[in-house]
């Protein structure tokens, strides 16, 4: 009888564990280095996190190859507000995310291999100004980084796109601290007190996304490379474009982000993955300077036409 009771208890515990894992979407993970589920252990439960084309990276500007045929982005569609529905979410205590639904918003130009539709945007920030961004520029951290996530237009949904080669196009922006508030961020920040706890969400008044971008968005220089999601499952399916123009933000506005919670008693800060090895990848750029113009003119067009294919094949060679 005692043995049967023990087996029943064990079965109930096992069932509870399975249900908990199912409701959480699989194994847990966090940003706490050195702790269980931290970035150095992601590859254990998510094998792609140990791949050779992982993100983020440290972009060394002198090594980025200038491409004269890499076009600028056209952000005209980012003005769209009619028929757009926005939801702000404290996503699992990992980030602040704005989900886009309704009328589609497309990212145009930029030399992308297909049309890409905006799905969501989210942020990564630090507990202090000297850290926060996921990507580095010449070894430099920024206090915050914005990711605008787009999926290929023809793919069914984000779950399909994130597993599909070149399925996602992510446009990243770094933030720079200024003395004055950036008023263009207020339509978003005014709602943050209502998403303090994990998984809290609220519908937003629609605003044109283009207002958040740097003033020089019409000729926005950027760096381009092929990489991965920066959170588990770390699928290597992302075309990354990182803008060279920064978005302004004040210290008090950064503190609004830092006021969110990862859990009931822990503030949501330092939600960035450590930089990953570049390995054999090539970073190309629209930004022309004497430091990154070493490639011969006759070979430069190949970087735009072949860099994505080379990244997918060459990086995976043993």
TrEMBL record:
GO molecular function: carbonate dehydratase activity; zinc ion binding
Ranges in coiled-coil conformation: none
InterPro entries listed in its UniProt record: CA_dom, CA_dom_sf, Carbonic_anhydrase_a-class, Carbonic_anhydrase_a-class_CS
UniProt name for this protein: Carbonic anhydrase
CC annotations in GO: plasma membrane
Gene3D superfamilies tied to this protein: Alpha carbonic anhydrase
Keyword Glycoprotein annotated: yes
Cofactor: Zn(2+)
Domain Alpha-carbonic anhydrase as annotated: residue spans: 27-287
Leader peptide range in chain numbering: 1-22
Record keyword rRNA processing present: no
A Pfam short name: Carb_anhydrase
Keyword annotations: Glycoprotein, Lyase, Metal-binding, Signal, Zinc
Function recorded in the entry: Reversible hydration of carbon dioxide.
EC numbers on record: 4.2.1.1
Family: Belongs to the alpha-carbonic anhydrase family.
Reaction(s) catalysed by this chain's protein: hydrogencarbonate + H(+) = CO2 + H2O
Main EC class the enzyme belongs to: lyase
